[in-house]
Amino acid sequence: MRRLLPIFFLSLLIAVSLPAQDNADRNSFSAKVLFIDYGRANGIDGLELTNGLELAYIRNLTPWLNVAVPLKVGVMDVEEDINNRTFGSIDGVLQFQYPRADTALLTPYLMGGAGMNWETDAESHVQIPVGAGLNIRVGGRSYVNLQGEYRIAQADNRNNVQIGLGYLHRFGKIDADGDGVADALDKCPDIPGSPETEGCPDQDMDGIANAEDDCPAVAGPKRFGGCPDTDEDGVPDPKDLCPDEAGLAALEGCPDSDGDGVADRLDECPDEAGTLKTKGCLDTDGDGIPDKEDDCPATAGTAQYNGCPFSDRDSDKVADEEDECPDTPGNFELNGCPDSDNDGVADKDDACPDVAGKFDGCPDTDGDGLNDAEDACPDRAGTAENKGCPELNKEEQEVLDFAMRAVQFETGKARLKDESEEVL
Length: 424
Fold this sequence. Notes:
This protein is 9% helix and 24% strand. The protein is mainly beta and 424 residues long. It has an 8-stranded antiparallel β-barrel with strand order 1-2-3-4-5-6-7-8. A hairpin with a 2-residue loop joins strand 2 and strand 3. The longest helix has 17 residues, at 4-20. The radius of gyration is 61 Å and the shape is rod-shaped.
């Protein structure tokens, strides 16, 4: 056991010295009066309580672990000596404390370790201390220390109980929240944080304090206020309306496939460049009505007339108020009316709508100025007075007049007399 003690103490010294190079605020010193009992610990009656003095160096390794090196001197009452004898000891002890802030009123701990004990007129021997303690904060970095330990000795009748009461002082500056940043430098002295964020909490561990982090629960770079940029388009996710698609900052992080300045999410024609006014769709005539809804896409108009400059129910480019046939597509030259035979006469005025002609829309085959429909002799030029037939000469007229007088019918009948047939 004695051979193991040097190794144990060397390990303690290394554990103490390495962290000590990082933060001197973790060092503490204590001094206390000891009340020592060898009688009850060894079942021996008649032994009195004795006293001693302990000086200890304590080094905080983690929020829950301390290492301590106490030095003790005192007197002891043992069975084989009628007079109290002097002793000295040095221990290496680990203290497992309940993690608390520097400003906590009570800090309890459990302890255990090993040490070497020397006494007058006897050989040195190993003792193993185990016990518990309590630090009671009385102000600043000052504490009252109360500790009880049972020491198991590697010698006969040397087990003992020690109760200590004294003072403990922690060096360095006060760190109320126990985050390793002194209150004087801690921007959040009552909330544990990290040195990287000047003592303030950083939930997502991105190096930006929660109070300054626009996205405290999600890690992100400082240039985006601590928020991520999932699609890496330079627009942080909280301001990106399309966080999963790379887009343009001017369009709040959304893409614009046709480059018309209208984000695809608002563009009704994402593959065809248009205008913001027409929701990204083409507007050839610039009247604010997209071509797909414009009855007159090449002529500026109004929404009232579906993109046309006037009302045109039959879409023949003739305004309804000027269209004599507003519900039937027609020709502009005919005031919007149709001309089926293309003779320049509207069907409504054409006596022969299916046959081209110049006279009321009808043809005049013999060219006598009387259309075929009214011409009794459509293949021979005549006069209007003769219903389109040619005039008779004098001889022909005389023969006709004679025939008209000579032709007779039987009385009361529609039958010619025999002599009339010869005249005819």
